[in-house]
Amino acid sequence: MTIDSHQHLWRIGQNGHEWPTPDLSVIHRDFVPDDLATACEGLDITGTVLVQSQPADADTDWMLAVAATTPLIKGVVGWADLAAPDAPQRIARLAQQPKLKGLRPMLQGLAQEDWILRDDVQPALEAIIAHGLTFDALVYTRHLPFIGQLARRYTDLRIVIDHGAKPPLGDPDGMKRWREEMAKVALHGTVSCKLSGLLTEMADGQAEDVLTPCAEHLLAVFGADRLMWGSDWPVVLLKDSYRHWHDWTLRWLDGKPETAQNAVMGETARRFYKL
Question: From what superkingdom does this record's organism come (predicted)?
């Protein structure tokens, strides 16, 4: 019984849509619950977590409305302007929605690498904690030291690093730093990680063999109880199919303890997001 901890839906030109852009023709179209059901056909997917893709309140409100009528979607990770003066009030209203599980500022696109530590963001973070919500960190390697500082500052904040912090596959020096920084941030027991998005970090023509050391490192430093599988669908379509990434993960897990397999493929996400 698999939980997909990371998938998206969007409508082009609606709900504050900014991305994907037309140059990404494979995914530049509407993706709605019927498309998700089709992508999951034949797989043992018992629930998903719908994650924001647009930095817009309208996107979050739409996702919550969709999730309310889609049983497969067990939780929503939305967006809020954490630096806004009324952010705590907005978060309080969102938290009243039963399927709202967490929030995700799009840190990877912000010019200030330590943005999340800014004074004007702290009331929103305190509201996230107060309402029992989680924090999805969409980051690169360079952001990880600041996520570590965040974890030290707020020991009650449940953080998950999306897409393994997007390892720079094919860059030996970059991968060395990625391994080191991931190991450091994993020392914080409140930080978890998603095994997601790795396929789309591969360069064209790069062999999938490069993914195995990444997955092994994440499992080694976080442990299965803090590592959760996610499809990153439909973004994964830029490289392959939902099924392809699902089956790759199962092959990688084959031979590992059953408890580890169950954790990565569902139990960790179920516990983290309180599904």
Answer: Bacteria
